[in-house]
Design brief:
Four copies of one chain form a homotetramer. By secondary structure, chain A is of the alpha/beta class. Chain A starts with a helix and ends in an 11-residue tail after the last helix. At the A-D interface, helix 6, helix 7, helix 8, helix 9 and helix 12 of A face helix 6, helix 7, helix 8, helix 9 and helix 12 of D. Chains A, B, C, D: InterPro entries: L-rhamnose_isomerase (IPR050337), Rhamnose_iso-rel (IPR013457), Xyl_isomerase-like_sf (IPR036237). Chains A, B, C, D: This is L-rhamnose isomerase / sugar isomerase. Chains A, B, C, D: One of its GO terms (molecular function) is L-rhamnose isomerase activity.
């Protein structure tokens, strides 16, 4: 039946003018980076529920990430976070990853958990703290060199909780100064991803509060600096795909932190709250891949897709597999958009026709396609089931309770 | 100059028809309960910054609350939270409070930090967990009896993170069943405050998500059950004072958890983000105190005012004193409203006149009044300065770092 | 290929334990009422763009509604709005509808466009205005009797724009008094739907601002009063399906006004912004249809589904057809939920399993099913195409520009 | 008593180190432009309530604006909107203004009410429409020259209602192209203010949706292009004063459209919903006026303060006077900030101290100061009362009902 379903799907898409071979090729190439911290315990400010089987160190986190890659075939890299993943020998960590078919992806500095950073890191009024924060950033570039990663991914938690607490413009200058030094330490092939966030942990102002601030900073720094869009870091109602299309057009979209939200930065499994939004993001990306401008095309094709979630109640590895599958699902649907039809309707100012031409792709059931793609890739057709059937869930129980958390 | 300022204030208000003696009497009677947990370390999910001088146990938290009461004169009770304030002998704890001129206020159950409550407490699908949660609620009623408190204040964190995760209607029934048992254990003079919250820690649905659900539940339970309004627990844009007026009219407003927010449940110092909102809440309360219906009047006069904040970066005791002062400021301003003028304008459908009649009270500087009130009460005119000048800030440093937190 | 697709769909669903015959029966029975005003010109406060072919009166609006019913087979009734659809002889209007296979559905009073209502209708401080508003409500009950409709659908725009503008509690009493009189004029088989709205046209407070206020009012009035949920009338982030499940459990959900929103009350085509939310609403309804309580089941089966949109830029009739199809799509998907599987996972506290059991139904492509259902119903398989192919679009151009608007 | 109040105020401020002469000078110099359309009838999409006495043409609107200037002394210019204020001879209109002590301020193009603009103006897919829109923009520059205004103030309503409706990146390019042509037509002393808006009238995407897009566009165009901040055009929770400080630091803040909002773009009287926000905006501006960078200082001192409200239920002229007074109130309070104290506390990372140093200025009652300032300026001490006492309210009734509206 599965085969039948696939052949029918292929027939339907072919009749619509969709090149199914290209669709499959694209899906196979969609690499989704998973975060080492996504395998650890995490929670809300009210409670971190500890689970059995949580990795106890950076090496075990990589083991879990490797398991996800073996089951999905599309997660070849794992993001690390310093100092959560601090080890004595980063070369050894990279080696450990390589042995399992992985590589180290984005290196994420941490400028929010040291006691000195209570009132800011690179934006702190105290020059000693700013210096310390900058040293950490430079350390992360060094780590990236050691693990042969080309990506530094910076989320800056700096902000204030009260009006008047700090001089906002002064902090803006300090921020630029530190990042300029960080930028100048990058190797030519490296990219610096600059993330923004509407609020939390700061509740009055956040120094990098929105895409506009991240974008302007990236412009000031240079070509290697790009904006990172975390799908949960916006005000309610924000049209995220519009921002995506804007950054693509400016050749400044570097990557994503995927997750879902209904309220604030809920960090839920991507694709579970409003899957259509994820589909529409991919629609903008695929549209940009066909741009006349080579720079725009290249930007769209060079996006770093990363998952960044906080699994409070979910089993970690299955949650990560589900996340990867959800991303694939919406990407596959977006690949079924008949762009010729969309553009024709747009040119004719046919509002309903253009809306329908995009939405009709969303309504396809792409699960037969994804099963076949997985077969062709030599990974399990049902990665979640395969995970449960493997010995891994039982094996990790040996780690006990009380593994890594943030 | 301070005297001059007060006499001028008195003259102006008297000319407006405001009875300054009654205003002072009202301010002196406004009791504001502080929470034991507000003196401990607290933070965001990203970090709890530990401070020196934090109380190490329930007794020391009461010491801090007593200090705030000595300095302000209007904080005669302290809310406790079980098990954060669990002690072997609650009588002894109450005695400790009495010795310092305090009494134990609302007893707050904790249904969110036990590992068993990860997927719900009284709404958990597992009857054993529900039973355990109910037992804890009943234990809290017992504690209340032992500390001679008449208030149980329930915030229920129960909820789900994903569509389909649970049967929402079934959980609603379980919630009612447990609370009905809790309710039947109350002494006749006791009140049960039912709090609601828009989201967090649950990110898809919260079993008591808004005032409507808390109100309906309180109606089902009976007269001793009332709604508690936490000023930070609403969707963006919600007209909180409208809800306050509605609950007053229904004689179902039990109390407040005061704090400020700009984004979500930010739990900042009350009165720092939008002080006008706090003023407008008091306007509704003072308006209801003049209602023809005795029940409405009594409800308005019997509100439990409680502070509930999470001081992430602030020194705890000064933050609490500032909070108390901010509440007094807005209350004092609301007492300067010329209700005759407001009502006349309302009757005449004079939009600008009515708006102005309310707002003009907000624009008065009530600090001279509050200084005189404090003098008359025999407390420091400047409680914050008095705190800094006392030996207390130095004395508590002996507690070291690593005190109580949640 | 279409046949192939359907047979495969049937096979898959049958294997999952879904009774396809029952699914089809349910879809055929899902009646969706369209609003007469949805066929007229409408716009934003900035501009109403006038289109050619807009109906010039109530009779022509019914013609358009009848066309939509002929093409979809599931829109047997049309809501009317007084005075927009005021005619001399309502019996004649009903007759006109019957001749075209339609009946008149909900009668909607208008309490917001008379000059007297600028500062409120049934909540106005002026008793003469309140009396006039009540008279209009009673007139609408009379109209309902004349057109043999059993539904009165009340949206109350009353509210204020400024703090202090009016006595909120007094208005609450006036509101109850008028609705109590309206209620007492209902025939026993009639229902009164009470709608709520977060804001607009009032920008400070709205007298019926949320479901809690509408629900309490319906409880006070009696069994024939029920709450109407307009999907665009909530604060950002509100879990609408939770409210739906709550009202179902209380047997107080009367009906829906379907539309889509991204920001405020955008009144866009239903199902175009976040189709998953619509699916989840139907999930709650279908869940309630299986309740042990007969009253809950009956409530769920007796919901009045109505579209209420404001087509600013869209061609009106195609927009309505698209809306009806979008509702059917999400309803059909929800009918594919394997409730046994969902409940089993819920009982086992299997978060990922339960979430997946609901979402997997959303991922089916139900278009083959809907095509077959339409065939079996004897309506066009593609209603939009059939509309374009009919002479109707051309025929209505004779109406010219400048038809009905609100 | 008024005198006593002022002398006490002066004494208090002087003791705090505030130079009261400079404060008064600043208040007198704060020019607030009123909009011609604010004197006309306006409303919501549900109803425009027509009032008696509304100006019937551009000349009468200027009469009303002149009245507001006579009564307040701080509204020397009036913004016009083309074609709402289209006249045959703009020189004559300017002359009419001059005779009454006014000048014409910002010229506002209208790109949203022509039928051709239904799906966009300068972003329309149709080159003929784009050309027409550009011609209108150039016409407005011509009008500005004729009325000797140096400010073009552009609000672009362009956007889409549905995903897929249009190519977002293509529209971005068309937008730039038109504005580049507009920009090149400016005289050297002219400024182009670029406004942004979160949503409405478009409900899916707005081509200039946030400050980041307006800022980038202004950067691309050149020095004469600056961003205009309308206080009601942001997502809920947005920290507007942060954006203000950011734009000041970048020397790209051109002006404000002042109004209040609680929900969306409510366009209520400025200072009535959250007066503290307005105060905090002025805090940022006054802070920037002391910057070491001359460009930042000049930018802060050269801001165009404009009111942009939609008076739905209010009498127009009194609403405008109240708005002007509310702006003055918050400005005067901000001028009482002890910046030395603020900066000292900021340098010491004294969170509570710095917060208090800003907020304490907000708590002063500046009405005695404003009365004296008005006396010194030779305008009525109570402008609203003076308006009611003047013959003007009666005189304009001759205009009848049915004046200008938008």
């Amino acid at each position: 039946m599965s085969d039948k379903a696939y052949y029918l799907f292929e027939e339907i898409q072919t009749n619509r003018g969709i090149r199914i071979d290209k669709v499959k090729e694209k899906i196979k190439k969609l690499a989704i980076e998973t975060p080492s911290w996504g395998y650890g315990d995490s929670g809300t400010r009210f409670k971190v529920f500890q689970k059995a089987g949580i990795p106890r160190n950076a090496f075990e986190k990589i083991d879990d990430a490797a398991m996800v890659h073996r089951l999905t075939g599309v997660c070849p890299s794992v993001a690390i976070h310093i100092p959560w993943d601090k080890v004595e020998d980063y070369g050894q960590l990279a080696e450990h990853a390589h042995h399992q078919g992985l590589r180290i992806g984005a290196v994420n500095p941490n400028l929010f958990q040291d006691n000195d950073y209570m009132l800011g890191s690179v934006c702190n009024v105290d020059p000693i703290v700013r210096k310390k924060a900058l040293a950490h950033l430079l350390e992360c570039v060094q780590v990236a060199k050691e693990v042969q990663s080309d990506n530094i991914s910076l989320w800056l938690a700096d902000g204030t909780n009260y009006p008047g607490q700090a001089n906002l413009r002064q902090r803006k200058h300090w921020l630029y100064e530190s990042l300029a030094e960080l930028y100048s330490s990058l190797l030519p092939q490296m990219r610096l991803f600059i993330e923004y966030k509407f609020f939390e942990p700061a509740f009055y102002h956040t120094d990098l509060a929105d895409w506009g601030m991240a974008f302007h900073l990236a412009n000031q720094l240079g070509q290697q600096a790009q904006v990172l869009v975390d799908t949960g870091h916006h005000a309610q109602g924000t049209n995220v795909e519009h921002i995506v299309s804007y950054l693509l057009d400016e050749q400044k979209l570097g990557g994503f932190h995927f997750n879902s939200r209904k309220y604030a930065d809920d960090d839920l499994i991507v694709g579970t709250m409003n899957p259509y939004e994820l589909f529409l993001i991919f629609y903008q990306i695929l549209d940009a891949e066909q741009d006349v401008d080579a720079g725009v095309r290249k930007t769209a094709e060079n996006i770093a897709y990363m998952i960044d979630q906080s699994h409070v109640i979910e089993p970690k590895i299955p949650a990560m597999i589900r996340s990867v599958m959800n991303v694939q699902t919406q990407y596959a649907k977006a690949l079924c958009i008949d762009f010729v039809k969309v553009r024709q309707a747009q040119l004719e100012n046919d509002v309903l026709g253009a809306e329908n031409a995009v939405r009709e792709a969303f309504e396809f059931d792409v699960s037969p396609l994804l099963r076949v793609v997985r077969e062709e890739m030599g990974v399990p057709v049902d990665p979640l089931q395969a995970y449960e059937a493997s010995g891994y869930p039982k094996q990790i129980l040996e780690r006990g309770v009380g593994g890594a958390s943030w």
